Amino acid sequence: MFSHIMIGANDIQESKVFYDAILGAMGYEPGMIDEKGRCFYFTKSGVFALTKPINNEPASHGNGSTIGFAADSPAAADAWHAAGLANGGTECEDPPGVREGAIGKLYLAYLRDPAGNKICALHRMG
User: Fold this and answer.
1) Residue 41 and residue 12 in contact, taking contact as beta carbons nearer than 8 Å
2) Domain count, the chain
3) Residue 25: its pLDDT value, please?
4) 56-96 tens-digit pLDDT
5) SS3 sequence, the chain?
6) What's the confidence (pLDDT) of residue 126?
7) Domain extent for 85
8) Where do the VOC domain residues begin and end (predicted)?
């Protein structure tokens, strides 16, 4: 459904360190900086990117917005969460763990990135 997701960042290098760590914990390659100073993470299923806002206003997070990253296991979600905390992320929501809802059991781990964007690692429990 999605070709790419791009979010704003006030400090691309700080955000790159953060996302290199959390995405690296799930096996992804470090991001690549292009000639315009944007950072891209290319995968088989799509692209995740960081950019300074083109209107020169500060980057800000969307209230009620969450970007979810698929995790292969609860351990992968925990590694993602730990890497985020060690690289400038902050905790939000409940601690990582299983939550039950209308679509079954999910293992969820939430963080805010250095720019305040709410992100999540999600593993669908069998």
Assistant:
1) no
2) 1
3) 97
4) 999 988 888 999 999 999 999 999 999 999 999 999 989 99
5) CCCEEEEECCCHHHHHHHHHHHHHCCCCCCCEECCCCCEEEEECCEEEEEECCCCCCCCCCCCCCCEEEECCCHHHHHHHHHHHHHCCCEECCCCCEEEEECCEEEEEEEEECCCCCEEEEEEECC
6) 81
7) 4-53+66-124
8) 1-124
Q: How many CB atoms lie within 10 A of CB 15?
A: 25
Tokens at 86, concatenated: 């060690």
pLDDT digits (tens, 9 = 90+) for 25-42: 999 999 999 999 999 999
- Of 11, 8, 29, nearest in space to 20 by CA: 29
**For position 17, which CATH number holds?**
3.10.180.10
Q: Is the pTM of this model over 0.70?
A: yes
